[in-house]
């Protein structure tokens, strides 16, 4: 059906804005909530550690190892999960992932020592694997490329929001210590995992798989959106017509040098997000704060980062520019990490960590817009998963390394130096990619969905 089905009474840009606003309002709030819970379940162990490590006899190195094993499992199962989603369908597969990780999260409350803690983190990584790249792929089914930086930023704002709202909640749940003969950290892990199961069942009812089956859109809106997305896919296929599918696409993607460069770039951001979510409560607690004070102060950097993340994603789409929009936040992150070596003040450290997270979360939208725009359609599923998977190899290694460095040196600023280096290297690689960026990789701004 041609785009001539657009009502003549409505200007084309107004019709597009109305259609995309409907899509945004239907999908984004629910997906943000799902990712919020996913990240809470991933990083709430950082707050649980304030009392759990003592109860279980976990050393700093053992805690870091458990954090690293999460990403080992995540890496092993991520690409197969994304390929399975293409076969099974987004609605069913995303629901399956959420229900599984909720059950594992509840089980994590009953670990008894370093070995069972490590096993629980590995199983949680296996359960959650595929959710993030699956949703990024799912968004490409619904949003034309001109919208993707802002949409990815809106979706990924769940990461800093999970720590902004989760920090005081987790600190409060620790006060349930002794209720029903459970420790506070056990209540924390149980109560924050239950929503994942409930949202998993809700996904079955609320997430349509493709625009063609979207009953919340009119026939004209479905036709316009389907035509727009099909035209973009055909254009990309014409530019790169010979590509493998399925498992062959995985090997084709892994042979692509740019995929590896993008993975190294994202490794810095991914490692920073996950490392600070796990370790920042302990960094702040080291200044002699109570659990509640730690929770309240931990909110500040993530709250600032959440607001700036949306602004930066909108800016990237309005300008249609991806390279500087990704490189500048990485540079800010790297420099701010380096400056933590120069201070022992709580407030100076808090300011610098706020700048770290501001830069780190700002790159999410433009980076994934750049990545999805440069991958051929036949390789999109495997490509997104491969970039995220390879990046998480670095995340897992650095999470474990930080635990070892902290134990050996007694200094968190020194332990965070690998992140300083990795984000600095990532910044340089963005400019390297930019040297060969094709003009057609830029996109034009579209009607801002943020108004929805």
Secondary-structure-derived class: mainly alpha
Mean pLDDT: 83
**Radius of gyration from the CA trace?**
22 Å
Oligomer: single chain
Subcellular location: Membrane
Protein name: MFS transporter
Transmembrane segments: 23-40, 60-80, 92-112, 118-139, 151-173, 185-207, 259-280, 295-314, 335-363, 383-405, 412-433
InterPro entries: MFS, MFS_dom, MFS_trans_sf
Task: Explain the layout of strands and helices.
Layout: H1 12-43, H2 45-56, H3 60-88, H4 90-107, H5 114-128, H6 131-140, H7 148-156, H8 158-173, H9 184-191, H10 194-206, H11 219-239, H12 246-254, H13 257-285, H14 291-319, H15 323-339, H16 346-362, H17 364-374, H18 380-409, H19 412-415, H20 417-435
Helix pairs in contact: 1-7, 1-8, 1-10, 1-11, 2-9, 2-13, 3-4, 3-5, 3-6, 3-18, 4-5, 4-6, 4-10, 6-18, 7-14, 7-17, 8-14, 13-14, 13-16, 13-18, 13-20, 14-16, 15-16, 15-20
Structure description:
- With 452 residues, the chain is mostly helical.
- It has a single domain, classed as Up-down Bundle (Growth Hormone, Chain: A).
- It has 20 helices and no strands.
- α8 (158-173) packs antiparallel against α14 (291-319), α13 (257-285) packs parallel to α18 and α14 packs parallel to α16.
- The longest helix has 32 residues, at 12-43.
- Residues 1-10 and 438-452 have low confidence and may be disordered.
């Amino acid at each position: 059906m041609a785009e001539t089905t657009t009502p003549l009474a409505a200007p084309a840009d107004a019709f597009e804005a109305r259609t995309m606003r409907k899509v945004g309002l239907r999908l984004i709030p629910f997906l943000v909530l799902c990712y919020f819970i996913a990240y809470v379940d991933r990083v709430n162990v950082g707050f649980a550690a304030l009392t759990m490590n003592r109860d279980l006899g976990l050393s700093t190195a053992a805690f870091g190892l458990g954090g690293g094993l999460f990403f080992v499992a995540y890496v092993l199962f991520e690409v197969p999960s994304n390929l399975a989603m293409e076969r099974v369908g987004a609605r069913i597969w995303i629901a399956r992932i959420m229900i599984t990780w909720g059950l594992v999260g509840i089980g994590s409350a009953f670990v008894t020592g370093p070995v069972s803690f490590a096993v629980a983190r590995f199983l949680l990584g296996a359960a959650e694997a595929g959710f993030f790249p699956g949703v990024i792929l799912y968004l490409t089914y619904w949003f034309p490329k001109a919208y993707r930086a802002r949409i990815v930023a809106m979706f990924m704002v769940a990461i800093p929001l999970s720590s902004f709202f989760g920090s005081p909640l987790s600190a409060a749940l620790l006060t349930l210590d002794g209720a029903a003969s459970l420790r506070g950290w056990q209540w924390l892990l149980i109560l924050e995992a239950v929503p994942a199961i409930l949202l998993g069942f809700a996904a079955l009812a609320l997430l349509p798989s493709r625009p063609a089956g979207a009953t919340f859109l009119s026939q004209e809106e479905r036709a316009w959106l389907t035509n727009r997305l099909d035209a973009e896919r055909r254009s990309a296929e014409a530019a790169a017509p010979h590509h493998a599918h399925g498992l062959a696409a995985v090997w084709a993607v892994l042979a692509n040098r740019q995929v590896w460069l993008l993975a190294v770039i994202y490794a810095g951001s991914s490692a920073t997000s996950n490392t600070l979510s796990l370790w920042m409560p302990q960094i702040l607690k080291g200044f002699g704060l109570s659990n509640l004070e730690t929770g309240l102060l931990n909110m500040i950097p993530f709250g600032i980062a959440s607001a700036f993340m949306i602004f930066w994603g909108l800016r990237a789409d309005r300008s249609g520019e991806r390279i500087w929009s990704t490189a500048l936040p990485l540079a800010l992150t790297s420099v701010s990490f380096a400056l933590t070596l120069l201070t022992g003040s709580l407030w100076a450290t808090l300011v610098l960590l706020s700048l770290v997270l501001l830069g780190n979360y700002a790159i999410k939208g433009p980076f994934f817009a750049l990545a999805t725009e440069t991958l051929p359609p036949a390789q999109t599923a495997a490509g997104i998963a491969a970039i995220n998977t390879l990046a998480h190899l670095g995340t897992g290694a650095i999470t474990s390394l930080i635990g070892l460095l902290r134990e050996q040196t007694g200094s968190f600023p020194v332990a965070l130096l690998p992140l300083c280096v990795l984000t600095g290297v990532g910044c340089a690689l963005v400019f390297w990619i930019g040297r060969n960026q094709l003009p057609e990789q830029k996109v034009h701004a579209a009607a801002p969905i943020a108004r929805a």
